[in-house]
Amino acid sequence: MSGIGRASVLIGAGTIVSRLTGLLRTVVLVAAVGSVGSRAGDAFALANQLPNNIYAIISAGILTAVIVPQIVKATAHDDGGRAFVSKLFTLGTVVLVVTTAIALLVAPWLVQLYAPSAPADQLALATAFAYWCLPQILFYGLYALVGEALNARRIYGPFTWAPIVNNVVSIAGFLVVIALFGSDLTAISDWTPDSIALLGGTATLGIVVQTAVLLAFWRRTGLRVRPDFRWRGVGLGHIGKLAGWTFLMVIAGQLAGLVQTRIVIEASGTGASIFAMQNAWLIFMLPYSVIVLSIGTPYFTQLSEHAAAGRDDEVRGDIGRSIRTLGLFIVIATAALAVAAVPASRIFTNSRDAAVEASVVLLCFLVSLVPLAVLFVIQRTFYAYNDTRTPFFFTLLQCVLVVVTAVVASATLPLQFLAAGVALGQSFASIVQVIIATWLLNRRLGGLRVGAWMLSLGRFVLAAVPAAGAGWLTFQLLGGVDGWTVSDKLLGAVGAAIIGIASLVVYGAFLALLRAPELKPALEIARRVLPGRR
């Protein structure tokens, strides 16, 4: 198998284990704080979301769009990029420390900003959790800086495997919370300073340990990093120009997310709200992370090299191959998750009725799973050409649509379906975004051979229809919404797996009947992750 294939398998295997332990982490957390209708659960979800949002504003977009291509270029310097990386890491650490300190100082106002309509007791609990969670900003940033540097040097494994340690630490801490203070602590009055400190402190400790594990692999980069406050002379000004558009893009995304949170919090205590929506997104992101990130990340590094060398035809080839490969897996993942939505949602809820309600949110997110896989490739191709301006504009359009659809959902839907309406609006916005982005890239490169990879996606969808039918029939034979697959968290996982396997078998059979040329390389990737294979 090629280097791309080996890297994809390494990332994919690590991502699978990471996501599975992450799912278990969330299962334990739901057991502790509840999910649908839990005011305490929504308070913790809001507080634990804050460091992610703030980190995204200062760092995430810049890292994804800019750092990997720039580190790849810096390796051509006489020192192999050492001076560049030292200055970059020094600047990044300073920004992260200052931002974390400011966030802690203004924590009550941050919580109020995201949940202005929440009752005073819920705001107080969320603020208490926020003080414990906000230090994660620093460690998220350091983890991402080190991880992207490793990826740029084609060292993919540690960045993918380190989160497993975080999940193990979190699971242990959440189990201690349950052992000491009980389970299903959904009411605000259930929480004491000690239980707040244990839950919030555990969430942050996991990120600290995750970062420490990743730092242990730094020597493999061959780069010696030292504090360097002389930030001129190695192109950081160029990065600033590129990152300016990316920064604005992330700001737009965060503002859209802020509107969503302010709207969805209105349903807290009544139906699916912040925490239930986060859990539906977690399920949605499982196939995206395992499939899209594991296959797409190595392609992005190769695509960046081809773009830097001006080999546009090879870039077009990279785009087509990656979308076809991603599409084969992501289409069946979408179909299988759709028919298994109720048992899959039962894993992160504490009752059958809550699972049914949460599954509607998941289905609304799933509408955009295939388009987002395509967008991953298209958007990062712009980044590979150092173009962050164009992605800003098509992302801005998406953010505007997210806000408009969320406001419409708030005005027209009952609280029970508010989260689902917001999720569906986000999916619609993403579909429009990928259409516009593909059209713009097609113009820039003088053609993307869209017809070829759209034909492949059509073939995959054709095979997925009977596969989804088989999965739905399996779900009904297992009792449907009144059956054993929705009676318990563990049984929900087992039921979802059975439904998924049934769908996958039929999908593979129909692809073989259609003689899909993408099936053979896909099977090769699958064989690589089977036990005992090399």
From TrEMBL:
Keywords: Cell membrane, Cell shape, Membrane, Peptidoglycan synthesis, Transmembrane, Transmembrane helix. It is a multi-pass membrane protein. Its main location: membrane. It is found in: Cell membrane. InterPro entries: Lipid_II_flippase_MurJ/MviN, MurJ. The chain crosses the membrane at residues 7-34, 54-76, 88-111, 123-146, 158-183, 195-218, 239-260, 280-301, 326-348, 360-378, 390-411, 417-441, 453-478, 490-514. This is Murein biosynthesis integral membrane protein MurJ.
